[in-house]
Amino acid sequence: MRSFPVPFNEEARLRSVFSVPGLTQSNNAVFDAICEAARKLLGCPVAHVSVLEDDSQWYKSVVGIELGRMPRENSFCAHTIMSAEPLVVTDLSADPRFKTHPMVVEGGPQVRFYAGVPLILSSGQRFGSLCALDLAPHDAPPGETEMAILADLGQAVVAALEATPPEATVPCVDREAKASFITLVGHELRTPMTVLLGSLGLLGVSNDNDSGSRMVNSALKSARHLRGLLESIIDYSDAATGELRLNERSCALQEILDDVADLSLPGADGTLKSPSVNPGAAPIEILADPDQLRTALNALALNAINHGGDEIVIDAALDAQGNLEITVTDDGSLDENIELTRLYEPFVLGGALENRDTRGGLGLGLPLTRKLVELHGGEFEVQAAPGSTTAVIRLPAWRLEAAERVA
Questions:
Q1: What is the CATH number of domain 10-162?
Q2: What DSSP designation does 168 have?
């Protein structure tokens, strides 16, 4: 399975990569000189300027080793482009993210040290990194001065690329990225409000004390979710570039699953429905953004409620490789208008607009869930069969080991 994260604004990032006129595979001595300076600065035998495309990484310049185009899953820089901050790992073989990496284990070059800075275009998009690598671990990370110089060298790479042709590059906002970002986030802002208003509206005419209590609880949960989401958007997003960042911390998965199971909402037939958590679900600590993980699972639970399942079960287990699988299974069937095969295409929102359920869910909920899962370095799929639907979130094993280290 995938083990590297994918930026929330990946499609916009790729448009920026392909639009830089100087970003070709033909080399230039200036980039070799920058790489030489980088490896000498950090006392490393290898340095390179990497470019990350949709499924591969190639190099504008490499010094100290021969490297060709490689799968993105073999790239350390796939992690570097997830933030505007440098990425430094003094011993890759001791880091849960990289210790089983093809470039680290036997049979590969057995790289041990990595220090890289993201290369940020004037559009704000990150297309690759300038990094130095060593085959031996380092006792300590580089100092602030060395990393500041490395960042300056990275800016020199970008300046050299954007100076071709000689006209100055005009910073611009990727309007398509901004519109897509607002569409996705706007949907998720409306979803908890829909739950809140719908639950409270039905509560006003309900005489069932138990049902009323469940709907009130659902409304309060949704209100808290909305408040947290707004705070997350303010602190961890950039509408100009379509970026959403993770606020990662070690968290108890069971608490997140229990929160989602508190959701109560009438389905299409008016029957009040709530998910349940499999009592045998594994007690797991995971390094993740709990708010975004809860957002993804809430969307899946709403999907199950909306498309008619009477029984909705949330479960969590580890596969044979130690990866985490979270499933939301119900005994309903997907609407025939839902185009599952298109949910994995860039920014496809699950079919024509007129086919989307206005109560949230299969229109935007699934592609939003997919992007949030990919942001965590995982995979998402929906398994549909007559009388049964299962949504599967898979997260890499290193997130569980990393949580233990944080704890």
A1: 3.30.450.40
A2: P
Give residue-wise pLDDT tens across range 129-139: 999 999 999 99
What does the alpha-carbon distance between residue 178 and residue 190 come to, in Å, rounded to a whole number? 18
Domain ranges of the chain: 10-162, 175-406
How far, in Å, CA of 219 to CA of 209, rounded?
15
| Mean pLDDT to the nearest integer, 383-396 | 89
Four-point Cα dihedral 24, 30, 31, 34, nearest 10: -160
* Cis preceding linkage at 165, omega within 30: yes
Radius of gyration of the chain (CA): 23
- Helix, strand and coil percent figures for the chain, each rounded to 5: 40, 20, 40
Judged by DSSP in three states, 226 sits in: helix
Q: What does DSSP assign to residue 321?
A: T
Q: Are strands 324-330 and 379-385 parallel, antiparallel or unpaired?
A: unpaired
pTM above 0.85, yes or no: no
- How many CB atoms within 10 Å of residue 201? 12
Give ∠ CA 39-40-45 in degrees, rounded to 5.
Answer: 50
Query: Domain 175-406 sits in which CATH superfamily?
Result: Histidine kinase-like ATPase, C-terminal domain (3.30.565.10)
Query: Do the domains 10-162 and 175-406 sit in the same CATH topology, yes or no?
Result: no
